[in-house]
Specification:
This protein is mainly α. The chain has nine helices and no strands. 12% of the residues are buried.
Length: 163
Protein backbone atom coordinates (compact mmCIF):
# COMPACT_ATOMS: atom_id res chain seq x y z
CA UNK A 1 0.00 0.00 0.00
CA UNK A 2 1.46 3.36 -0.96
CA UNK A 3 0.80 6.90 0.25
CA UNK A 4 -1.99 7.55 -2.29
CA UNK A 5 -3.98 4.56 -1.08
CA UNK A 6 -3.56 5.60 2.57
CA UNK A 7 -4.63 9.19 1.89
CA UNK A 8 -7.49 8.38 -0.50
CA UNK A 9 -8.74 5.46 1.60
CA UNK A 10 -10.16 5.57 5.08
CA UNK A 11 -7.18 4.02 6.84
CA UNK A 12 -6.21 7.04 8.98
CA UNK A 13 -9.83 8.10 9.43
CA UNK A 14 -10.76 4.63 10.72
CA UNK A 15 -7.90 4.54 13.23
CA UNK A 16 -8.92 7.94 14.58
CA UNK A 17 -12.58 6.85 14.78
CA UNK A 18 -11.66 3.61 16.54
CA UNK A 19 -9.62 5.41 19.22
CA UNK A 20 -11.61 8.64 19.72
CA UNK A 21 -15.12 7.43 18.80
CA UNK A 22 -15.52 10.37 16.43
CA UNK A 23 -14.53 11.43 12.95
CA UNK A 24 -12.15 14.31 13.43
CA UNK A 25 -10.80 15.97 10.32
CA UNK A 26 -8.42 18.12 12.35
CA UNK A 27 -6.73 15.02 13.75
CA UNK A 28 -6.60 13.48 10.30
CA UNK A 29 -4.92 16.62 8.98
CA UNK A 30 -2.48 16.57 11.88
CA UNK A 31 -1.56 12.95 11.04
CA UNK A 32 -0.87 13.84 7.41
CA UNK A 33 1.27 16.80 8.49
CA UNK A 34 3.29 14.63 10.86
CA UNK A 35 3.78 12.00 8.16
CA UNK A 36 4.97 14.67 5.75
CA UNK A 37 7.25 16.43 8.26
CA UNK A 38 8.78 13.16 9.48
CA UNK A 39 9.01 11.39 6.13
CA UNK A 40 12.80 11.68 6.23
CA UNK A 41 12.82 9.62 9.46
CA UNK A 42 10.90 6.72 7.92
CA UNK A 43 13.09 3.68 7.41
CA UNK A 44 12.49 1.96 4.05
CA UNK A 45 12.81 -1.49 5.60
CA UNK A 46 9.68 -0.99 7.73
CA UNK A 47 6.03 -1.18 6.76
CA UNK A 48 4.88 2.29 5.66
CA UNK A 49 1.23 1.57 6.46
CA UNK A 50 2.12 0.47 10.01
CA UNK A 51 4.24 3.61 10.46
CA UNK A 52 1.33 5.85 9.40
CA UNK A 53 -0.98 3.80 11.64
CA UNK A 54 1.31 4.35 14.64
CA UNK A 55 1.36 8.11 14.00
CA UNK A 56 -2.46 8.09 13.70
CA UNK A 57 -2.81 6.20 16.98
CA UNK A 58 -0.39 8.49 18.82
CA UNK A 59 -2.10 11.65 17.57
CA UNK A 60 -5.49 10.23 18.62
CA UNK A 61 -4.23 9.25 22.07
CA UNK A 62 -2.67 12.68 22.58
CA UNK A 63 -5.99 14.24 21.64
CA UNK A 64 -7.85 12.08 24.17
CA UNK A 65 -5.41 12.98 26.92
CA UNK A 66 -5.80 16.68 26.29
CA UNK A 67 -9.58 16.63 25.90
CA UNK A 68 -10.03 14.51 29.03
CA UNK A 69 -7.90 16.94 30.95
CA UNK A 70 -9.96 19.86 29.72
CA UNK A 71 -13.18 18.12 30.69
CA UNK A 72 -11.90 17.07 34.11
CA UNK A 73 -10.70 20.61 34.78
CA UNK A 74 -14.09 21.99 33.85
CA UNK A 75 -16.19 19.59 35.91
CA UNK A 76 -16.96 20.62 39.44
CA UNK A 77 -18.43 18.51 42.20
CA UNK A 78 -22.09 19.21 42.92
CA UNK A 79 -21.30 20.54 46.39
CA UNK A 80 -18.71 22.93 44.98
CA UNK A 81 -21.10 24.09 42.26
CA UNK A 82 -23.59 25.19 44.90
CA UNK A 83 -20.99 27.53 46.36
CA UNK A 84 -20.76 29.37 43.03
CA UNK A 85 -24.50 29.94 42.75
CA UNK A 86 -25.29 33.44 43.92
CA UNK A 87 -28.48 34.16 45.80
CA UNK A 88 -30.34 36.64 43.60
CA UNK A 89 -32.45 37.96 46.48
CA UNK A 90 -30.71 40.48 48.68
CA UNK A 91 -32.29 40.38 52.09
CA UNK A 92 -32.28 43.43 54.39
CA UNK A 93 -29.85 41.60 56.70
CA UNK A 94 -27.45 40.95 53.84
CA UNK A 95 -27.68 44.58 52.73
CA UNK A 96 -26.81 45.77 56.25
CA UNK A 97 -23.92 43.31 56.51
CA UNK A 98 -22.63 44.38 53.11
CA UNK A 99 -22.77 48.07 54.05
CA UNK A 100 -20.98 47.39 57.35
CA UNK A 101 -18.31 45.44 55.52
CA UNK A 102 -17.84 48.22 52.95
CA UNK A 103 -17.56 50.78 55.76
CA UNK A 104 -14.89 48.69 57.53
CA UNK A 105 -12.93 48.40 54.29
CA UNK A 106 -13.21 52.14 53.59
CA UNK A 107 -12.11 52.93 57.16
CA UNK A 108 -9.13 50.58 56.85
CA UNK A 109 -8.12 52.16 53.53
CA UNK A 110 -8.32 55.64 55.07
CA UNK A 111 -5.94 54.52 57.86
CA UNK A 112 -3.25 53.47 55.37
CA UNK A 113 -0.13 55.56 54.77
CA UNK A 114 -0.87 58.10 52.01
CA UNK A 115 1.33 56.38 49.41
CA UNK A 116 -0.37 53.01 50.09
CA UNK A 117 -3.83 54.54 50.16
CA UNK A 118 -3.24 56.20 46.79
CA UNK A 119 -2.02 52.95 45.19
CA UNK A 120 -4.95 50.89 46.53
CA UNK A 121 -7.50 53.41 45.30
CA UNK A 122 -5.93 53.68 41.85
CA UNK A 123 -5.47 49.93 41.38
CA UNK A 124 -8.43 48.31 43.17
CA UNK A 125 -11.13 50.97 42.95
CA UNK A 126 -10.33 52.93 39.79
CA UNK A 127 -8.92 49.86 37.97
CA UNK A 128 -5.72 51.52 36.74
CA UNK A 129 -2.99 49.22 35.39
CA UNK A 130 0.52 49.17 36.82
CA UNK A 131 1.73 51.18 33.84
CA UNK A 132 -0.98 53.82 34.23
CA UNK A 133 -0.25 54.19 37.96
CA UNK A 134 3.47 54.40 37.23
CA UNK A 135 2.91 57.26 34.80
CA UNK A 136 0.43 59.03 37.05
CA UNK A 137 2.67 58.85 40.14
CA UNK A 138 5.91 59.25 38.16
CA UNK A 139 7.56 56.22 39.77
CA UNK A 140 8.87 52.88 38.44
CA UNK A 141 6.49 49.95 37.94
CA UNK A 142 8.49 47.96 40.51
CA UNK A 143 7.74 50.64 43.10
CA UNK A 144 4.04 50.48 42.20
CA UNK A 145 4.00 46.69 42.64
CA UNK A 146 5.92 46.90 45.91
CA UNK A 147 3.63 49.55 47.36
CA UNK A 148 0.55 47.66 46.25
CA UNK A 149 1.84 44.46 47.87
CA UNK A 150 2.59 46.26 51.13
CA UNK A 151 -0.73 48.09 51.08
CA UNK A 152 -2.62 44.82 50.61
CA UNK A 153 -0.59 43.23 53.38
CA UNK A 154 -1.48 46.04 55.81
CA UNK A 155 -5.14 45.92 54.77
CA UNK A 156 -5.24 42.17 55.33
CA UNK A 157 -3.90 42.66 58.85
CA UNK A 158 -6.45 45.38 59.59
CA UNK A 159 -9.33 43.40 58.11
CA UNK A 160 -8.42 39.92 59.34
CA UNK A 161 -11.86 39.46 60.92
CA UNK A 162 -13.51 40.02 57.52
CA UNK A 163 -11.24 37.48 55.86
Amino acid sequence: MDIKEIINGNYVKNIIKRITNEYNEDLEQEVYLKVWKNSDKYKEQGNFKAWVGMISANVSKDYLKSSRKKISDMTVADEDALLFVADKKATPELNILQKERQKKIADAISKLKPKFKEIIILYEIENYSYEEISKKLKCPIGTVKSRLYNAKKELAQMLCELL
